[in-house]
Amino acid sequence: MKRKQQKLKIRAGFQGEFGAFSQQAAEKFLGEEVEAVPFPSFTGVFDGLGSAEIHFAVIPMENTLHGSVHENYDNLLRYGCRIHAETTIRINHNLMAAPGVTLRKVRRVFSHPVALNQCLDFFRAHPELEKAPYYDTAGSARMVMAELPPDGAAIASARAAEIYGARILKKSIEDDRQNYTRFFLLGSDRAKEHLPPVNPKDCVWKTSVVFSVPNTPGSLFRCMSAFALRDLSLTKVESRPLRGKPFDYLFYLDFLGRVGETATDNALRHLAELADMMKVLGSYPRGDI
Amino acid sequence: MKRKQQKLKIRAGFQGEFGAFSQQAAEKFLGEEVEAVPFPSFTGVFDGLGSAEIHFAVIPMENTLHGSVHENYDNLLRYGCRIHAETTIRINHNLMAAPGVTLRKVRRVFSHPVALNQCLDFFRAHPELEKAPYYDTAGSARMVMAELPPDGAAIASARAAEIYGARILKKSIEDDRQNYTRFFLLGSDRAKEHLPPVNPKDCVWKTSVVFSVPNTPGSLFRCMSAFALRDLSLTKVESRPLRGKPFDYLFYLDFLGRVGETATDNALRHLAELADMMKVLGSYPRGDI
Fold this sequence. Notes:
2 copies of one chain form a homodimer.
Chain A: E1 11-15, H1 21-30, E2 35-39, H2 42-50, E3 56-63, E4 67-68, H3 70-79, E5 82-90, E6 94-97, E7 108-111, H4 113-117, H5 120-125, E8 130-133, H6 137-147, E9 152-156, H7 158-164, E10 167-170, E11 180-187, E12 205-213, H8 219-228, E13 234-241, E14 249-256, H9 262-274, E15 277-285
Parallel strand pairs in A: 1-2, 1-3, 7-8, 7-9
Antiparallel strand pairs in A: 3-4, 3-11, 5-11, 6-9, 6-10, 12-14, 12-15, 13-14
């Protein structure tokens, strides 16, 4: 496909190193031509969005094994950016090493402790292998290719193997195949300009809101009536205690509907009446499941 | 206080190394005389409970920054054990080293990457320090005391410093003070015998349930009516998509009430009518917040 030379290069920030699952999500959202920009921390990515250093941020929000990333919900509220899209990435772990290093030669396996811990069956089957904690999954692939330890391997994504030129020795060594992470594509209100236009009628829409309710029995139930009375389906409900305000709760809620549609707009107006605080985080096409 | 020699030593399993926050939780639940038994993985702890190697398991269920630990909810369902108590531990990170190693001498700081990442402000203020990922927070304290690197320090709990004899160089270096983890004390139905008896009237009780609902608009709302109609206050609601069954959800719900009380028993019978699957995980005194 021929592209115009002057076409703007879209920059998307992510936390981690090249080859991270967040980079895969960025490419799934914006195509392989996206310029993925690594940041060491989540707040770094959000700051980058605030200073317009990047057009979009690609942020993990929840994982099937480890739950919602509350700190990123906090960042979403604090930085006040908009959700433009969602997607889900299957997290799978691959054993990889420099060309010439075979599985028989490997003694140390580098990766993030969370990844090492998700491959315990593999380590049980290979008691000769030592788990060597490393700062980052993709970073461990980069390291074994830079330092070429003759007995070292890494556990990282297939994309990391590709980027750093590592050879995959064993695919999908994770214990649990049901390991998925949901990512949001975040940006300013205006960032939408950089996305291909979507006809609202061509897809199912989701809307995400955050709200807090007074601590009285049935208060959440009343808030949810705003959706039930309009036959809007909820796809996520999560309460979170507000620290410093014991017994007060913050709720995350996703439902099928789009800001601009009558039922959604009415439900949100109704919710605003009932909640102490309410904020719409965005309406976006439902991603793959 | 004098204790009888023949008194049974209560054994509580936890994931991690001695000095882990889970061990602190075990001591908070069962007193300092508890025998805390470390296991390398969560499933190891649950297996230990199944084989009666330990009387109780002390398991982290949610963290204010990182959300619910879904894999432990899965373990709770799979292993069919009972919640006997809950507690909350403030996660704070301390810089520690072997006696004689002062902050000026330190160049490498060992800890679990999650802990290192929660102390970014400290590392920004000390650019001379290298973050050295290690397998476990408490394990990093053990390692600096065993190997005595002259330029090495660890980030771990104050309890880990005490256990391994490390000297704290700087207290509470975490960026966010609002970092708390909620733990459950789990055991068989009979494990209750080993706990001091509680008069139900002396405390506020919580009950935890898991249930799934058919995917129709308003189905969760109907389930919640079982509680709202009886003025029972919810303290946690969390939905979780069921992988392999897209659009079907598992819900975790905590409410103030106790199995054996009329309103609670009626609400649970009503919920069982409305839900596809429903399981009571336990009734237990509300812990500190």
